[in-house]
């Protein structure tokens, strides 16, 4: 039997082979009889090569307890009816009266967590998520599991050493407990810096970097871009600025410098400053600047494409754990942000537990039912991102049928203009392919012969190759504690998703209903490819080639590598207006 004392000194699994960690001592097992508890998740089975250390009783842990919604199957049907424009979106009161947990339900969970020593308890506005901070000892008291600090290959984090259980008295309200398997359920930034022969591509000149030539023949075709290029390249400059819209951006950590970085960027380009409102729905750690560059890229890309907004609503999660990110997305949904951009994701959809998938889909189906659109990245690790099954995989939560799944392209301009579109190919780092467990949604029935029986990703791509990326301002503290800024070029699917979200905000501004996207976008694509719909002969820029190693572009067709390609926003707005 493995006793805590044996592993507290850092004993690696490689020393003792493939052993089960579900064995517990008699004193531990006696804390709850089988009749008084309900098991939610089994213990994490260790593998050869793992390094597992039992966490000390005072080690900090954050948990996110997700409550069950009522009538979930019916809510999914409502979401389907909304996105096929067969009915209007649900109001907040409609959603609360029939589908959401009650405040009393959430309070029961909060009281349970408090009784077991947790504090810093947050209840989401929709009563679906109760977040709390405690210790490993509090987790053992509440959920009857010890915790390992687990290192497995490139992944590390928390793993539950024993089955995760809840009192049977709460089984009617609790659907999942997250935060106890972060080693496998952590998102990462999808921002990639452009590299030159001397390292990352940076600007040392005065003012803002722009195009290499203002007239005549340009210096490159696959060019790094200033922000004024992208709206023209993607046809968004033909639409009015999204001045009455709000775009929500999901980030991570301390954002105290994000406004400064954004203002520096905008003022150097002469952009009108869009108010940036930052909130922390479940708290944060001051000084945690891990995701500062991602935040700058997302905000700058959204501002680039919208041409102006009422404001950018920035929701920052306390960590990149996918359950923490869900709390930030939930807050944006609860605030009825019609457009949400998410640039953090796990590379391997196939490695995500079903309970976490269900928690995301539950919240995202409510978003669709309310007419809210979430743009999520497929991630940046190409066709074979190093999943546990060594297979190709898309990112998560981009595999959900309730998001717009966004991959990345390499954008080429014409020989005479940095801001005139020529063509696109697939960026090699763009992930794609079928979801592991999500069945094909109805809106993909028109491409069933391509995607098969599972949800196919991506739906669309936008520029994400760092070599054709966006100049942004990044920052950090040097060894003297002085905050320094520099210009650098970034891409990745983290550029593609906010570019698409910003373009979508312009579509909304032009009068397209905010629940109009999925079914119509697929129908317009079929019409364009088959030349059967004169409303949309050039709505999409179908890619001309490229591969991520697992999937290759089929020029002129919807395909598993690049979906429908990128948007020609002006043509798309016209096509959607004619379909209304």
Automatic annotation (TrEMBL):
Cofactor (UniProt): Ca(2+)
Name of the protein: Peptidase S53 domain-containing protein
Alphabetic keyword roster: Calcium, Hydrolase, Metal-binding, Protease, Serine protease, Signal, Zymogen
Gene3D superfamilies: Peptidase S8/S53 domain
Stretches assigned to the Peptidase S53 domain: 224-580
Signal peptide as annotated in the record: 1-29
Active site per database record: 294 (charge relay system), 298 (charge relay system), 494 (charge relay system)
InterPro entries: Peptidase_S8/S53_dom (IPR000209), Peptidase_S8/S53_dom_sf (IPR036852), S53_propep (IPR015366), Sedolisin_dom (IPR030400), Tripeptidyl-peptidase_I (IPR050819)
Organism for this UniProt entry: Dyella mobilis
């Amino acid at each position: 039997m493995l006793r805590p004392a044996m592993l507290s000194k850092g004993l690696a699994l490689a020393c003792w082979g493939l052993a089960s960690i579900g064995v517990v001592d008699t004193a531990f097992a006696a804390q709850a009889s089988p009749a008084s508890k309900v098991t939610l998740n089994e213990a994490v089975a260790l593998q050869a090569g793992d390094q597992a250390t039992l966490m000390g009783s005072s080690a900090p842990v954050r948990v996110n307890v997700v409550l069950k919604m009522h009538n979930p199957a019916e809510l999914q049907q409502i979401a389907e009816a909304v996105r096929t424009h067969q009915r209007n979106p649900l109001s907040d009161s409609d959603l609360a009266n029939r589908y959401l947990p009650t405040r009393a339900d959430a309070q029961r969970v909060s009281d349970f967590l408090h009784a077991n020593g947790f504090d810093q308890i947050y209840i989401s506005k929709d009563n679906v998520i109760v977040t709390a901070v405690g210790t490993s000892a509090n987790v053992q008291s509440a959920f009857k599991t010890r915790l390992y600090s687990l290192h497995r290959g490139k992944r590390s984090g928390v793993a539950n050493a024993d089955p995760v259980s809840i009192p049977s008295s709460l089984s009617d309200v609790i659907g999942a407990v997250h935060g106890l398997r972060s080693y496998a359920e952590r998102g990462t930034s999808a921002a990639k810096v452009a590299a030159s022969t001397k390292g990352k591509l940076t600007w040392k000149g005065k003012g803002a970097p722009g195009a290499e030539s203002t007239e005549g023949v340009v210096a490159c075709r696959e060019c790094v871009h200033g922000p004024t290029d992208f709206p023209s390249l993607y046809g968004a400059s033909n639409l009015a600025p999204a001045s009455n819209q709000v775009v929500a951006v999901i980030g991570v950590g301390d954002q105290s410098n994000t406004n400064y970085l954004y203002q520096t960027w905008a003022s150097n380009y002469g952009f009108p400053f869009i108010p940036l409102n930052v909130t922390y729905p479940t708290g944060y750690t001051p000084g945690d600047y891990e995701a500062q560059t991602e935040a700058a890229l997302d905000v700058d890309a959204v501002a680039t494409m919208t041409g102006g907004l009422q404001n950018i609503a920035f929701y920052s999660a306390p960590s990149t754990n996918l359950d923490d990110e869900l709390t930030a997305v939930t807050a944006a949904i609860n605030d009825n942000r019609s457009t949400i951009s998410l640039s953090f994701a796990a590379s391997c959809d196939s490695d995500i537990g079903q309970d976490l998938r269900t928690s995301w889909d539950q919240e995202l189906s409510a978003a669709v039912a309310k007419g809210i659109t979430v743009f999520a990245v497929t991630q940046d690790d190409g066709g074979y991102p190093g999943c546990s099954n060594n297979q190709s995989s898309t990112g998560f939560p981009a595999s959900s049928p309730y998001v717009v799944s966004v991959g990345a392209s390499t954008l080429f301009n014409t020989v005479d203009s940095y801001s005139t579109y020529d063509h696109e190919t697939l960026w090699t780092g763009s992930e794609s392919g079928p979801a592991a467990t999500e069945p094909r949604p109805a809106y993909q029935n028109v491409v069933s012969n391509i995607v098969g029986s599972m949800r196919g990703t991506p739906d669309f791509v936008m520029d994400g190759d760092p070599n054709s990326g966006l100049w942004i301002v990044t920052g950090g503290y040097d060894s003297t504690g002085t905050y320094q800024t520099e210009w650098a070029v970034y891409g990745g699917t983290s550029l593609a998703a906010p570019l698409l979200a910003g373009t979508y905000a312009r579509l909304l501004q032009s009068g397209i209903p905010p629940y109009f996207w999925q079914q119509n976008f697929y129908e317009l694509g079929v019409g364009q490819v088959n030349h059967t719909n004169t409303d949309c002969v050039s709505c999409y820029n179908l890619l001309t080639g490229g591969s991520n190693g697992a999937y290759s572009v089929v020029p002129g067709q919807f395909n598993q590598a690049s979906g429908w390609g990128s948007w020609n926003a002006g043509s798309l707005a016209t096509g959607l207006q004619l379909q209304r």
